UniProtKB/TrEMBL annotation, chain A:
It comes from Nonomuraea deserti. GO terms for molecular function: acyltransferase activity. It comes from the Bacteria. InterPro entries: Thiolase-like (IPR016039). This is Lipid-transfer protein. PANTHER family: ACETYL-COA C-ACETYLTRANSFERASE, NON-SPECIFIC LIPID-TRANSFER PROTEIN-LIKE 2.
From TrEMBL, chain B:
This is Thiolase domain-containing protein. Residues 246-377 form the Thiolase C-terminal domain. CDD domains: SCP-x_thiolase (cd00829). The lineage of its organism: Bacteria, Bacillati, Actinomycetota, Actinomycetes, Streptosporangiales. It comes from the Bacteria. InterPro entries: Thiolase, Thiolase-like, Thiolase_C_2. One of its GO terms (molecular function) is acyltransferase activity, transferring groups other than amino-acyl groups.
Amino acid sequence: MRDVAIVAFAQTRHTGHDTGLTEPELIGPVIGEVKERTGLKRFGFTCSGSCDYLAGAPFSFVSALDALAAWPPISESHVEMDGAWALYEAWVRLQHGDIDSALVYGFGKSSLGDLRTIMTLQLDPYYLAPLGLDQLSYAALQANAAGADRAELDQIVRRSRADGRRNPYALDLPDPEGEDVAVRPLKATDVPPITDGAAAIVLAAGDLASRLCPRPAYIRGIAHRTEPHYLGMRDLARSDSAADAARAAGVGKGPVEVAELHAQFPHEEIILREALGLRDDTEINPSGGPLAANPVMATGLIRIGEAARRVHDGAARRTVGHATSGPCLQQNLVTVLEA
Amino acid sequence: MGNRCAVIGIGQTRYRSRRTDMSIAGLVREAALRALEDAGLTFKDIDAVVIGKAPDLFEGVMMPESYLADALGAAGKPMMRVHTAGSVGGSTALVGASLIQGGVHERVLVVAFEKQSESNATWALSTHLPFSASLVVGAGGYFAPHIREYMRTSGAPDHIGTLVAVKDRLNALKNPYAHLRIPGIDRAMVESTPMLWEPIRYLETCPSSDGACAMVLSSEGAITGTPAWVHGTAMRSEPIFRAGRDTVSPQAGKDCAADVYRQAGISDPRRDIDVAEVYVPFSWYEPMWLENLGFAAEGEGWKLTESGATALDGDIPWNASGGVLSSNPIGASGLIRFAEAALQVRGTAGEHQVDGARTALGHAYGGGSQFFAMWIVGRDKP
């Protein structure tokens, strides 16, 4: 495979409420930032990820093109998935060998609707959605199956929020306190915050990578897998698709210094750590992770960006970024980044 | 363009107003199984699945690839979901082809669908974001002014749209999968139907269909059956609100065509291409796209249509399948164009086969005439 690296990453200062910005206004500055950082004004390929259901209108990605100043017309595509899968599509496109750069972005404003209920519409419309199982209820089913120790879950939330407070882009959430129940066994503090935000990444191949960035984060492996949709057909205590993706991406070929995991609930972090085969010395979500900022449709892309940032700033030589989609970690993407 | 890629299996459902006999999963599975059967393969032989559809609001299922993973045999495999507005079917084929061309996979299943009977597409398309006034109803309301502008600048006579509406429905009578199969279709019948959006009459617009289309794409080393070789692929997008952009003949369409022609070694599309499946949801888009795609000079597209050149027995048949005007499961409509182009060069299009077709264009567009996806397929290895 051709060497492709992440050479720039930018994200919004995520907010826990609607600041009145439209989606193009949210995206504009982060696109501007990665263009300025790389000096690139045009890209061989552009790909984005977003979801119409967050905006409550069809074609929410169409006006995003206005933020790109896509003129003359650009070679561009869109996935109705987290921006991490847009990054995957761009990485594949760079493998063709005829272009050397790609712009990837993801965005979402989950403040606009009732995210917990909206996520119900992701379920089988005939047999599951009519049951009204919302996002917290099915996450609680998985938490129950995982059967994690309460103290460990509390510790994950405490660590994530503390790290988030040190991350200028994440939300400022207090140490978890109280025993309020969201949906048993999930506590209110186990629930990721409603967040608006966007992120952008520039990929570069070959010589261009080292010209644009002093320490490019090379994608040494990237893979994704899905698994059955029906919760009853899976062992919810584990994630086979994350484990398969991690094997295909080569996570176990070397030590992982930092892993940024798209774990929206603390029990998901435990399941993913095991699926990816991460050892105790791997630092998990130093950015605070989704429990400190969860701009849906950008959260996974931000994990990859944060994992790349550790390589860019010299803090680590080998990191892992992870993204998920679907109810209870149905679909998982894993990428290994190296200096 | 990377590694060679070929279409080795094609499957379509019959397009209908309502497939009440089928769930959404049943619909996509029917198309997928037919494509696999055509290729002589099973789900076990597939490395990855790429699925496309237009806005999720059409069926009320958010990100349905999650729910459809089981029906498409995707469990344990990579699965991606593409959405690029009306061009999505075309883009889905291109994302699938890219996985082969990039050397990532050997065989990819691409599927696109829409089950329009689950909702009302006209109203789903009329929804507008807060604070932006919606001045139009449905896609026809958006495109009608562009058609009027084309008629004004080209001086095309009023009956050209009628000719396309009749021609494509005559072709549909030869396509067993087509939704609108109207016996006795003629100009008088089209002209007797109500005006929906001046100048678009009822029979000059596409239907709302339920349906799915699937293709198996293969690397050179994994071919089974009859291949249709991919000779070129291209996508282009432009902003909807750019002041001064030409919405009648968009630059993105011209650039996309130039890119795909260059890859396929096409210098004169009318001469070098044998048959074209082009996204024509309203009859007037045939003459408009004839010009945008370089088959006719600016202002001359309607003359080509009027001369009969684009009919099944003309020198450059357009939409031999009956096109979007005859079947429109929106998210699948682009993929059907790409699949019909492949059927033609494989020589397996049946009654609507264009004799001796060796090179074909598949085309899709979407949004406010701003997203374009195209490919050229050929009988010969590139």
